[in-house]
Amino acid sequence: MTSTTAFWLAGRQATGETTFDVTSPWDGRTVGTVSVPTDAQIEDAVSAAHAVREDFAATPAHVRAAALDHVSRRLVERTEEIARLISAENGKPVKWARGEVGRAVSVFRFAAEEARRFNGGEAQRLDTDAGGQGRLAFTRRFPKGVVLGIAPFNFPLNLCAHKIAPAIAAGAPIILKPAPATPLSGLILGELLAETELPAGAWSILPVPNDRMPALVQDERLPVISFTGSETVGYAIMDSVPRKHCTLELGGNGAAVVLADFASDEDLDRAAQRIATFSNYQGGQSCISVQRVIADASVYDRLLPRIVAAVEAQVTGDPNDDATDVGPLVSEAAAQRVESWVDEAVAAGAKLLTGGKRDGASYAPTVLTDVPAEATIFCEEVFGPVLTVRKVDGEAEAFAAVNDSKYGLQAGVFTHDLGTAFRAHRALEVGGVVIGDVPSYRADQMPYGGAKQSGVGREGVKFAMDDYTYERVMVLTGLAL
Fold first, then answer.
1. Stretch 175-198: mean pLDDT, rounded?
2. For 242, phi and psi rounded to 5 degrees?
3. Averaged over 388-398, what is the pLDDT?
4. Element (H or E) spanning 419, and its range?
5. Among positive and negative, which fits the CA dihedral 348, 350, 353, 354?
6. Exposed, middle or buried: residue 350 (CB in 10 Å: 0-12, 13-18, 19+)?
7. Which are the catalytic amino acids?
8. Cβ of 195: how many Cβ atoms within 10 Å?
């Protein structure tokens, strides 16, 4: 049995009265045992964050930036250790876990840079009207208050980083609730933050069970909620606290469009490889993984066999093996849900071209065609290694097919035509359009979020900092301008 991992209460280690085991979805072994905070300890964390909020907002930028730089450097130093931990608790192949650590390194570095330049203030002259003569407006941003960050299991380090780093950079205290299935990666960030000089109460990392989350959500001392996870839970949170500021990143069913001009053998080989890789990376457990392929009729017959071959070439198996492309899903229950959705689609007339088999928590990379529009797997986010392929006639039908979804996170458009790229940017009802590639690209400094039921607000360090703060204007009077 591994030793019990403490949680982080107002910047210090603490242990509760109960524990739970974190197990590997690959082989069921115990990866770690985590201590659970008591109600009294949760209250201590909230009280400390609320009490320190004004002092933390006034903390010099160089102090916050230095702390963020420290975490970034320490993640680099411990990359392999942390990647192995991510892989063990989450099940993602270690090569993808290393990439996740690298992204978290960047998130904390970007946050350090933004901490140094954010909120410098902006002056605006008001004598453009006679009533404003001798007056000057000066605007700065100030934190809205303590942030409650709720992170998911699929990127257990980097999505915790996307909650913590912008809050610290903006001077907003944060209480982070990592996913119960994958708390260890988030708790590692506590170890690194504890090595800094941030004030007590500026951050806490609490592995709180989901059934105790509503009390945190309802607490009036936590006016900002940043949630990444399912549509059902996200909107339930927002509906329960209509006067709070909520940022919700809720997922999607990402579409990759392959248009008629992307027609050479080299083009189609590249598109097929990118689609196969990013429908299956992280076991398909990414909000922007490829779930729907929409191909122009002129390239469909040449593209489809390439996609099937590229999917079948994905190496599945032990996530600890550097050669593995696709590991297990986060749990057997998750794999069973994917299995049921595929079986439902096939029973309704969909053609299964490859995959469609489950082994415990693992589900084979799968390709479907002729999927009925009413099938669950066509309408909802599968969050598994499954893609559907559809034939369309022309650009307009392709873009309409992308928009024929309640989700709108990101879309990829394989085209060489610049005019098409701008038309896609205008037409597609999504938060991000990736030209010449799959929808699965995310740079951690860019604005990231969706339209429609994919959520509200934007992640991305600077954009999250904007979300965590508000503008306050000071008017100076009696000036000779």
1. 97
2. -65, -15
3. 98
4. helix 418-427
5. negative
6. buried
7. 249, 287
8. 11
Burial class (CB in 10 A: 0-12, 13-18, 19+), 140: middle
DSSP H or E run through 292? strand 292-296
Q: In a 3-state reduction of DSSP, which class is residue 327?
A: coil
CB 150 within 8 A of CB 225: yes
The whole-angstrom separation of Cα 50 and Cα 251 is: 31
Q: Could you give phi then psi for residue 228, rounded to 5 degrees?
A: -125, 125
User: Token pair 């930036």 is at which residue?
Assistant: 65
Other beta carbons within 10 Å of 373: 8
Burial label for 472, CB within 10 Å (0-12, 13-18, 19+), is: exposed
Are the CB atoms for 361 and 334 separated by under 8 Å?
Answer: yes
Q: Predicted confidence band at 481 (pLDDT cuts at 50, 70, 90)?
A: low
Q: How far apart are CA 32 and CA 60, in angstroms?
A: 37
DSSP characters over 107-168 = HHHHHHHHHHHTT--EEEE-TTSGGGTTEEEEEEEEE-S-EEEE--SSSTTHHHHHHHHHHH
CB 191 within 8 A of CB 78: no
Q: Is the Cβ–Cβ distance between 42 and 208 less than 8 Å?
A: yes
Q: For residue 1, is pLDDT > 90?
A: no
Q: Which pLDDT band, with edges at 50, 70 and 90, does 478 fall under?
A: confident
The shares of helix, strand and coil residues in the chain, as percent rounded to the nearest 5, are: 40, 25, 35
| 298-334 tens-digit pLDDT | 999 999 999 999 999 999 999 999 999 999 999 999 9
Q: In sequence order, which residues have a C-beta less than 8 Å from that of residue 239 and are 6 or more positions away? A: none
Residue 280: exposure state from Cβ atoms within 10 A (0-12, 13-18, ≥19):
buried
Residue 145 has pLDDT above 90, yes or no: yes
List the beta bridge partners of residue 123.
Answer: 138
Structure token digits, residue 164: 């913590």
The string of pLDDT tens digits covering residues 152-176 is 999 999 999 999 999 999 999 999 9
Q: What is the pLDDT of residues 66-89, one digit of tens each?
A: 999 999 999 999 999 999 999 999
Number of Cβ within 10 Å of residue 470's Cβ equals 12
